[in-house]
Amino acid sequence: MRRCSQTLSILLLLFTSLYFSVALGATYPDRPIRLVVPFPPGGGVDIYARLVQPELAKQLGQPIVIENKAGAGGMIGTDQVAKAAPDGYTLAAGNIATFAMNAGVYKNMPYDPVKDLTPIIQTVMVPYVLVVNPSVPARSVKELIAYAKANPGKLMYGSSGNGSGQHMAAELFKSKTGTDMLHVPYKGVGAMVIDLMAGHVQLAIADLASLMPHVKSGKLRALAVCGAARSAEYPDLPTVIEAANLPGYETIGWQGIAAPAGLPKEVIKRLNEAFNKAQSELSVKEKLISTSLTPVGGAAEEFARYIQKETAKWAKVAKDINLTVE
Fold it and tell me: InterPro entries per the record (predicted)?
């Protein structure tokens, strides 16, 4: 009798859970959705969020409220999302650092990117570029390496924060070239770029979207892109691999959307479809590409697998170069 009662209780619980899940999926969304950008305004993640915002609101039939919650390499804002109710009304716009790299770099993360978040969609790929302030007497990657070796500890590179994609990319570059350069972390890529143009730091590796407008204006000098192949947008820029004969040096950023763990499947599907449609809309797609953000899209399950793959990859890199952040 007791066993029968327990079985009925479990079945009732499962039925109730399924009922509310389906009910939520049928009515979702019925109020504004909060999209947390865990970085200051002006960076690549913020640019994506604001470009896709109007079309996303149209697809979902509700306002999309963007909130910039910067700090700790994107972990403060992302942690707020991880601890929010899994109802689809609080989302995180993040990147390679918040969803993958930080797990292998920080000793004490407030959230687990795999266990505490629900991947929704990989939104865009973000090619990285190596740039220097024009005061640096180097017009190629080989010249930069030679200059850095001749002046150990004198060059400073900026990043958007400890454990960020820019930080990891530069540390990997240092490791592979045997150079000694000092890291200056900033609270966001915007502040870093300002100091880079002013010459307070001499070089950086960051996304094309944040740096190339200043290269075009002559305030920065681009030396190479950091992917495995040249950029279709800037075909004259060599890769670091070919410019400096550094096989295996490949760093490319990416962005995505996630929600708290436990999000109902119906809501995941609704959000995934909405983001896919929003960033595929021609005018939105053209704007993304014009800012060097390459649309990806795809299923939520694909993004989940990609996060696991990237997390393992960068944890190994961090271990190999002995990079740890308290």
Answer: BUG, Bug_dom1
